[in-house]
Amino acid sequence: MAELESLGRNSVRLHPDIYMNELLCGMRAINKIMPIILEKLGVSEEISIDSAVFTLERVD
Question: Quick check: is 25 in a domain?
Fold first, then answer.
């Protein structure tokens, strides 16, 4: 596998860190523009996220 890598065989495949960077950049952009969008829509309420929604429960 190292030999194939050195020959450029995997050069067309993106590294997983690139995908993570794209996700983080997208989330930052959303966090920047979301307050502006909410203001233009007239939403003045504070938005709170219930962390219990994001917990995983084991289902047997």
Answer: yes
